[in-house]
Amino acid sequence: MEYLNFEQKRQFNEILQFLGESLDITQTQFDAAVRSYNVVGEWLSSPESQLYRYRPEILPQGSFMLGTMIRPINEDDDLDIDLVCRLEGKQSSWTQADVKAIVGNRLADHGTLKKLLELPDGRRCWTLQYYDSANFHMDVLPSVTSTGYRILMERTLTEAEASAESLAIRITDKYEDNYKTDSIPKNWPKSNPFGYGIWFESRARISGREIKLMTEAVQPVPKYQKNKLPLQRVVQILKRHRDIMFNGDEDKPISIIITTLTARAYQQETDIYEALQNALNRIPAFIEERWSEKHQRNIKWIPNPVNPEENFADKWPEKPKKEENFYKWLFQVKNDISEAIGQSSMTSIMESLKQPFGENLLNEALGGYGKSLLHQRESGAMKMAASTGIVGEVGRTTVTQHNPYGKSK
Known about the structure:
Elements: H1 6-23, H2 27-44, E1 57-60, H3 62-66, E2 79-88, H4 96-108, H5 111-116, E3 126-130, E4 136-145, H6 149-158, E5 169-171, E6 190-191, H7 193-204, H8 213-217, H9 230-245, H10 255-265, H11 272-282, E7 288-292, E8 297-301, E9 303-304, E10 307-311, H12 320-341, H13 346-357, H14 359-379, E11 383-384, E12 391-392, E13 397-398
Parallel strand pairs: 2-4
Antiparallel strand pairs: 1-2, 3-4, 4-5, 5-6, 7-8, 9-10, 11-12, 11-13
Helix pairs in contact: 1-9, 1-14, 9-10, 10-11, 12-13, 13-14
């Protein structure tokens, strides 16, 4: 990749910052999602519910929890909100199928939620489709944990050396052979979205900046996060590039692989430019090869950081197109970023980014960047380096403000 001088890097980093901000869902969308899933949680946990004694709780997972959710390419498309319905224990005879059905039946008992409930149910989740101006759907994953799990979670979130593995949950999956027969949760499929969140937070942490991604995310009313960390922004930018490149392709690189590899490759860089460039160079080093008894050969392995025996690339052997598309995408995004870095002006940089990231999004980011420059000019903070003529916050010559009469103030 090309390398920029200090001032070019600062400007490119600012463009990436505004690009990331343009990808964020709005606070209105965030608040609507939180209100909606709180209604679900209150209904499931009300005293007349069959689930009441098991203290049902609705919690976010995935990109909504991690702060890496991005707007869809088409503004009319749905946001996908992933949630966990967590039960502390269950009736001893209940199988996965029973837990799934009881959660679904309770949702259907609510007049409004019944209209939103999509049938049939999904492999693991119940889906609530919100219409009109909401533009999102919520996938609710039934799960079972041990008693005292919430206390364990809160303790883990505050410990210096958190044991993320201890936050594993047992989930329902109707494709499992024991779905209708086994009532022992330890034999059910295991997932660990909250342990993964703690791991991601540990990777995102940078010196001198306190963060509470998980502590905030799992509160009853989580706060909208406007100021994101460099790792969050890099993940958002890479996911957007993926969406543009593979718009509508079911074999596109999946978000959990992009998020995990980027987090592993991240080295606590404090600006987005360095973080993005270094991550793209380092990602291949974190794709392992392991012997597979099932396939009788070495296969690609991208381990779940809180469950190393789980392979996020487990679909690649059966669907080689997924593996092929991942490497195509990695090659293309490196090329696109290199091409942008190699441009001679901010205008040409922005033009080179329009195709890989979308013209509307880049125009929005450019608007934010322009407002930032105007604010710097008006505050007298903008300087021009005498030797290069590059505009920025360092240099010797102050860029003067201009009035409508053509005279400098």
